C-alpha cells in the first residue's frame, strides 16, 4: 500500500469518526436532523475516499471502468447527502429549498446514467490510462477517455451547490451570525478549489496529481463539524441554565408558598380565632351586659373586615396579575384594611386625584406601600398610620407616615426591606425618600413623574 492510499484510508477513518459522533448527537436529540444529515454526508465521503483509493490501483481499462463506476456512484451519494445537509443547515429560504431539490434531481439522474454507462458517467469510452509518478516515487493511474456530454450536468450541479452555500452564508451574515458565515463559506471555498483543480487540471492532464476533492471535502467536514460542535455546546449550556432557572423557580415558588402559609397562620388564622372566641362569648355577655356586648359586636365587625381584607391581599399574592386589573386606590385601601384588621392600628387613607399608571409603575407603588406597612406592623410600635396618594398627572406621590419609634436610616438603609424598595423605585426612574427620627416616627415618600419616563402625559 502506497502513501496516497494510506492517506485515503486515514481520511476514511476521520470521516467515519466524525459521522459516528454526529450520529450519536442525533440519537441524543432526535429533533436535530441537521446532525443526522451531516453524519450521512461524512459517512458517504468516507466511502468515496475508499472508492478513490481503489481506483488508483486500477492497472487496466476494464478495472478502471469498474472502479470509476463505483467512484462516481459514491460521489453522487455524498453529493446528495451534502445538498440535503446544506438545505437543512443554511437558511436559504423557500427558493433555496427548490434549488436544492433540482440539484438532488440532477445528481440522481447522473447516478442512473452512471449505472448503465460502460465507462461511468464521466466518459462515453475509456481510451487508456495515464500513469503518474509522484515526487516520492509512487505510481498511480488515472483514466483517459472521451468526455460524456452528461458530465456537464454533474458539474453544473456542483456549481449550483456553491450558489446555494453563498446564499446561506449571506443569510447568516444578515442575521449577525458572521462567525458561522465565515467558517462555512471558507470551508466550502477550500473544497471547491480542490474540486476545480481536479476537474479542470487533473482530468485534462495539465497536472499530474492525485484527486484532491477528498481532502478538500475533509476540510469542509472538519470546519463544519467544529461549528456544529460549538452549537451543541451552546445548546448544552443553555439547557443547563434553563435547568438551573427551573430549579430556582421551584425554590422561589416553595418559599413563596411557605411565606403565604406563615402569613395565613400569623394573620388570618389568629384573626378568625379571635372572631370565633368573641362570637362564642357574645350570647352570655349579651344577657349580662348589653353595652359590653355591643362593643363586642363592633370588635367582631372589625375583625371580620380585617380577615376579609387580609384574604384578598393574600389572593393578590397568589394571582399577581390581579394587581393590574384593579386601580391603585382600591389596592391601597385593601392594604390599609388588611393591616388595621391584623394589628388594630388605625390607618388614615387619603386619595387625591386619579391617574392611569403603567403596569410596572403601579406594581412598584403597591409593593412600596405593602413593604412599608409590613415594616410598621413589625418594628415601629406605632399607634397611628397615615397613607396618602396624590395624583396630579403626570406626577404621582405616595406617602406613608407613622408615629412609631423611628430608626436610624443610615444604619438600616440596607435592611428592613429598604434596599428592595429602592431597587423597585429605581426601576421606574422614580425618587424614594426616607425620613425617620427616634420616637418621632417615619415618613417614606415615593415620587414619580410620567413625563420624564414616558415622554407623554398619561392623563387623568
* Percent of residues in beta strands: 5-15%
Strand-and-helix sequence, N→C?
HHHHEEHHHHHHEHEEHHEEH
List the strand order in the largest sheet.
Answer: 3-4-5-7-6
State the CATH topology of the largest domain: Rhopdopsin 7-helix transmembrane proteins
SSE class:
alpha+beta
Oligomer: single chain
- Mean pLDDT over the full residue set: 80
Helix content: 55-70%
Q: Low-confidence parts, pLDDT < 50 over ≥5 residues?
A: 455-460
User: What is the domain total for the residues?
Assistant: 2
Give the termini separation.
91 Å
Report on the biggest sheet. Answer: 5 strands, mixed
Overall morphology: rod-shaped
Number of helices: 14
Q: Number of DSSP strands? A: 7
Q: Class of the largest domain, according to the CATH hierarchy?
A: Mainly Alpha
Instruction: Tell me the CATH architecture of the largest domain.
Output: Up-down Bundle
Which short descriptors sum up this protein?
460 residues, alpha+beta, Rhopdopsin 7-helix transmembrane proteins, Heat Shock Protein 90, two-stranded antiparallel ribbon, disordered C terminus, five-stranded mixed beta sheet, 14 helices
Task: Describe this protein's structure.
It is a single chain. By secondary structure, this protein is α+β, with helices and mostly antiparallel strands. The protein has two domains: 3-245, Rhopdopsin 7-helix transmembrane proteins (Up-down Bundle); 345-460, 2-Layer Sandwich (Heat Shock Protein 90), CATH 3.30.565. 69% of the residues lie in helices and 12% in strands. The protein contains 14 helices and seven strands. The protein has helices spanning 3-28, 33-56, 61-89, 93-116, 151-174, 178-202, 213-288, 290-318, 322-325, 328-343, 359-380, 409-412, 418-427, 450-454, and strands spanning 123-133, 139-147, 347-352, 385-392, 395-402, 431-436, 442-449. The strands form two sheets. A five-stranded mixed β-sheet has the order 3-4-5-7-6. Strands 1-2 form a two-stranded antiparallel ribbon. The longest helix is centred in the middle third of the chain and has 76 residues, at 213-288. It starts with a helix and ends in a 6-residue tail after the last helix.
Amino acid at each position: 500500500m502506497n502513501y496516497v492510499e494510506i492517506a485515503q484510508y486515514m481520511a476514511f477513518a476521520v470521516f467515519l469518526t466524525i459521522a459516528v459522533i454526529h450520529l450519536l448527537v442525533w440519537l441524543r436529540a432526535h429533533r436535530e436532523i441537521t446532525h443526522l444529515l451531516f453524519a450521512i454526508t461524512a459517512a458517504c465521503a468516507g466511502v468515496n475516499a475508499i472508492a478513490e483509493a481503489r481506483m488508483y490501483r486500477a492497472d487496466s481499462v476494464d478495472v478502471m471502468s469498474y472502479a470509476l463506476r463505483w467512484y462516481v456512484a459514491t460521489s453522487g451519494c455524498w453529493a446528495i447527502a451534502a445538498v440535503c445537509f446544506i438545505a437543512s443547515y443554511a437558511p436559504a429560504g423557500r427558493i433555496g429549498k427548490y434549488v436544492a431539490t433540482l440539484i438532488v434531481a440532477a445528481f440522481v439522474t447522473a447516478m442512473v446514467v452512471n449505472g448503465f454507462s460502460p465507462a461511468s458517467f464521466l466518459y462515453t469510452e475509456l481510451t487508456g490510462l495515464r500513469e503518474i509518478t509522484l515526487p516520492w516515487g509512487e505510481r498511480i493511474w488515472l483514466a483517459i477517455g472521451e468526455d460524456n456530454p452528461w458530465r456537464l450536468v454533474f458539474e453544473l450541479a456542483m456549481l449550483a451547490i456553491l450558489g446555494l452555500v453563498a446564499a446561506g452564508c449571506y443569510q447568516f451574515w444578515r442575521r449577525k451570525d458572521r462567525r458561522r458565515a465565515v467558517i462555512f463559506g471558507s470551508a466550502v471555498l477550500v473544497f471547491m478549489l480542490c474540486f476545480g483543480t481536479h476537474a479542470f487540471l487533473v482530468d485534462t492532464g495539465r497536472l499530474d496529481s492525485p484527486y484532491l476533492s477528498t481532502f478538500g471535502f475533509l476540510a469542509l467536514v472538519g470546519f463544519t463539524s467544529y461549528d456544529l460542535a460549538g452549537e451543541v455546546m451552546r445548546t448544552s449550556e443553555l439547557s443547563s441554565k434553563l435547568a438551573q432557572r427551573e430549579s430556582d423557580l421551584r425554590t422561589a415558588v416553595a418559599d413563596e408558598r411557605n411565606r403565604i402559609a406563615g402569613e395565613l397562620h400569623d394573620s388570618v388564622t389568629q384573626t378568625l380565632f379571635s372572631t370565633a372566641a368573641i362570637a362564642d362569648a357574645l350570647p352570655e355577655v349579651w344577657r349580662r351586659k348589653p353595652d359590653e356586648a355591643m362593643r363586642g359586636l363592633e370588635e367582631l365587625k372589625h375583625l371580620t373586615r380585617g380577615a376579609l381584607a387580609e384574604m384578598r391581599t393574600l389572593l393578590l399574592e397568589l394571582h399577581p396579575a390581579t394587581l393590574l386589573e384593579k386601580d391603585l386606590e382600591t389596592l391601597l385601601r385593601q392594604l390599609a384594611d388588611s393591616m388595621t384588621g391584623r394589628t388594630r392600628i388605625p390607618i388614615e387613607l387619603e386619595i387625591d386625584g386619579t391617574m392611569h399608571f403603567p403596569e410596572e409603575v403601579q406594581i412598584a407603588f403597591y409593593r412600596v406601600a405593602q413593604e412599608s406597612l409590613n415594616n410598621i406592623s413589625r418594628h415601629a410600635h406605632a399607634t397611628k398610620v397615615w397613607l396618602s396618594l396624590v395624583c396630579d398627572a403626570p406626577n404621582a406621590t405616595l406617602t406613608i407616615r407613622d408615629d412609631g419609634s423611628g430608626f436610624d436610616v443610615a444604619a438600616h438603609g440596607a435592611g428592613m426591606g429598604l434596599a428592595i424598595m429602592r431597587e423597585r423605585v429605581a426601576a421606574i426612574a422614580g425618587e424614594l425618600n426616607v425620613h425617620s427620627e427616634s420616637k418621632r416616627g417615619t415618613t417614606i415618600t415615593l415620587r414619580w413623574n410620567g413625563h420624564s419616563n414616558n415622554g407623554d402625559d398619561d392623563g387623568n
